[in-house]
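Lab notebook, page 48
Experiment: co-folding of the full assembly
Goal: obtain a model of how the components sit together before planning crosslinking
Operator: M.T.
Materials (sequences as entered):
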Amino acid sequence: MSGPINTYISNVPQASQYIRATQKPIQSNFLAISELLSVNHVGFNDAENFGKHNFTSLPSQSVTPTTLSSEMVVYCAPSTGYNPYELFYRYPSNGSVVQLTGTSNSSSDITDGYAYISGAQPTTNLRAIMKWGLVTGLPSGSVTTTVNFPTGAGIPAFVSTPAVSWCFQGVPSSAGVDGLINGIAATGFQWFDNGSSGTWDIYYIAIGQGM
Amino acid sequence: MALTYIYNSDTPQGGQQINNTQSPINGNFQDIDTLMAVNHVAFNTVNDFGKHKFVSYVNQGSDPSTTVAEIALYSKAVQDSSNLSELFYRYPNDGTVVQLTGSSTSAESVTVGATYESGTNPSGYKYLAGSYQYLSSGLIFMTGNIQLPASSVYNAEIPVGDGIPVFSSAPLNIVVSAGDDRSGPNRYGVTIVDSTQFTIKQQNANNQNIYWIAIGV
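Observation: model returned without errors.
Model output:
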C-alpha cells in the first residue's frame, strides 16, 4: 500500500491565518482522517459497523510495548523460530511478554516438533509448551536409554519436568515387550525395556512449562 | 445506529461561502468523535486516548493481505461449527492463514461419539467421547476414547463431521493409553495410517478403554 494521498496538518487553522488560507488544510485534514480510518477500520457512513475493525494489521515492533496496570497489548515482533515474525501479548504493568503463536516447521519436523500453547504464568514468564517426537530403535534387554527432547536455535526449552505420554509405534509382537519411561526431566526421559531382544519405536507427547 | 451526520471528507471547497461550510465542518468533527469512540478510547481521555478498549472484528469475506513485516488478525465465518465465526491470523507477505480459535463443546463431543458408534464399526468396539481444539500455533489437538476388546487390533477412524477440523495430512503424533488398570500385559501400540485413520493394538487380556491424543495440522 502506498500513500497516504492526503497530508494531515495537525496545527490548523492558526489565529493569524486568513480564512481563505485555511480552506485547503482543513479540507486536506478531513480527507486524511477518512483515509487513515479506512485502514483496518470500517469507515464513516457505514450505518452498522462504523469504527469497528475489518482486521488489524500489526507491523512488527522493535521495542516491546509498555502496558499500564489494567491493560494488555497484542502485537507482532520478530521471532527466532521458524517464522520470522509471531504474535505476542504482554500482561499489565509492563508485565511478562508471552509468545502467542509459533510452532516448528511442519514440513521438515514431521516427527519431532514443538508448539506454543497460549497460556502462561504472568509473573514468571513461563508458559505451556508441547513437544512431540518419534523415537526409533530403542533397545530391549534391560538397557536404559536416554531420550533427549529436541533442542536448537528457536526451539523453546522446558524449565521443569514436563508430563510425558507415550506409546509404541506399530504393533509390538514380542511377548517380552514391557517398556516404560522414567527419569523424566526438563531435557528428556529414560526408556527401559526388560525384554530379551528387539528394538522398539515409540511416540511421545510432552507438555510442560518453558520459555 | 448510523452516525448522525454524513461524513463529508471533501469539505470545505474553495468556492464555498463560509456560511455554507460551518455545518459540514461541524458535522465532520462530530462524526470523527463518535466514530473514534467505537472500539477506541476517545478524544480528551487522559493517558489512554487512541488506544483500544477492545477490538470488534467484522467478518471478512476474503483473507487480508499482509506486507513483509506484519501479521494480520481478523475474524471469518466458519461452516458447520458450533460457533458462527472464529479468529484467524495471517503471516507476513500474504503468508499462511492460521485459525487461532475454535474447539469442540461438551455437547458436541457427545454427538461425535454417537455418530461414530453408528458409523463404520468393526464388531466389538465403539467410539465414546472425543474433543478437539485449535491451538494458537496452528496445530489441531484432538482426543478420543475407544473401547476395544481384549488383545485386539483395530483400525480407528479419526472423527469427521460438522465443524470438526480435518487434518490436512497424517497426524504428526498420536499416543494412546489405557483407561482401565487391569492385569497386563499393558502394551499399547499405534500406527498412523493417514489423515483419517490409525491402527491401535492393545495386548491386554481384558477389554480396555483406550484414550488417544493426536496432534497435527
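Interpretation: Confidence is low (pLDDT under 50) at residues 106-124 of chain B.
Next step: discuss with group before ordering constructs.
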